[in-house]
Model the fold of this input.
Amino acid sequence: MTDTAPEPSEPSESFASMPSEPEVRVAGGALRGSREGGVAVFRGIPFAEPPVGPLRFAAPRPVRGWDGVLRATAYGPPPPQGGHFGMDALARDTAGDDWLTVNVWSPEPGPGAALPVMVWIQGGAYSIGMSGLPEYDGGRLSRDGGVVVVTFNYRVGLEGFGQIEGAPADRGLLDQAAALEWVRDNIRAFGGDPDRVTVFGQSAGAGSVAALLAMPRAAGLFGRAVAQSVPGTFFSPELAADIAAACAAELGLAPTVGDLSQVDPVRLSAAGDAVGAKMDRWADRWGPVGLRAIPFSPVVDGDVLPVTPWQAVADGAGRGVDLIVGHTRDETRLLTALDGLLGQITAEQAETALNVFGPGRHAARRYRDAFPGAGPDELYELVGSDWLFRMPSLHLALAQTAAGGRAHVYELTWSAPGMGGALGACHGLDVPLVFGNLDRGQPAVLIGESPSPEAEELSARMRAAWTAFAAHGDPGWPAYDDEQRLVRLFDTRPAVATYPEEASRLIWQDHTFPALPLLGG
Done:
């Protein structure tokens, strides 16, 4: 194990002789990419037919081939987006219906290279997300780590996760499985090894990674997985159908393929946003997701997703998959800031949060006893972070180890200097650090205007750990077990320590993270 940050590698001799517009051939036909910063890049490659017209709300269909050479130098159009962070406007700026495309970065494109492959699944609360964002550029990760990096688009919001009568559930997850099938069948042409595929994702992307572990359709498509901040929200079919009905009602329609397939995707995304903005009205029916404004999540439908990831992994579904799973220390501080409540939580708001999000009838008392010096702000943040990200992540690792599999656990504890340091080690901070894109994209605001040497060193350590794991399964710290509970802490001074959230771990130790039900009322 070493904590020395690796030096960026020089382009290989084979790359030096590569044409400025490298070409490869995949199952669909020939592709022409570009040469950027020491790697070959291919963008906007279709991996499935556009899910529009007769294919709207259908499972993804394999892409048909094309004649000639497809120029793969621009990202494909993103799927319809919700309005958070201006994603709806970004989607309209790149209009088109070829939503399902992949992008590939390779330091050595060629069928004999046999490099490790890392397939990224972006987050966005299952409501937004597009692979063409600058924070997801895979060039630095690919070049410095000697890996092939793949990113892709999948359907989000009602298009991808709405429970629509007459359509398969979890279409966004089916898109992800289809992208992984494309990787299996084509990645050798880019220098990748189809037998060394690692999926990695953050937030909803990490929830997707967890779901893929439980999906029969994804079995065998990857051998390693990295789940960064796994959200614990998986819906029962009844809850998902009730939310979809409310979204359709915004348009005066029923939540059926017949009604919704004729609706402009932009209007459908807007209907999802409208329901998300007033979900607290249905808190008596929808429970905690109503108060946290989470209208979409994977649905445990018994087919695409037979059971929750925690149950599937505990039953051995991921036993043959090496796993890294972790979270940030201050997960929901960013969400509190976005709600305009940072530093303003009242005792009443903290009490409500403890009772709604804490496990069991006596959760509020247990939190107060476990954290006797915590005020309203800290208690609000603790229970919110534990419910949504931290304990779901830890319990995924516990399920893996209980089933005889291997899991490495980490916590990001470095306080980001951006925005005056107010957000600490918040949700999303790991994204720029893992990709090394510290000065571009929206998460870069957490790093600050000029990335410090400290940030660069931490990013290099995380990239080295992730790519080493993809290459040979060892990220550089011991696997987790429930006796020693060793966790890698990513901070200015890296360390391996006993799991630090001992009090939260004990409060949540008996929780099973079931599919969230429809409460009625």
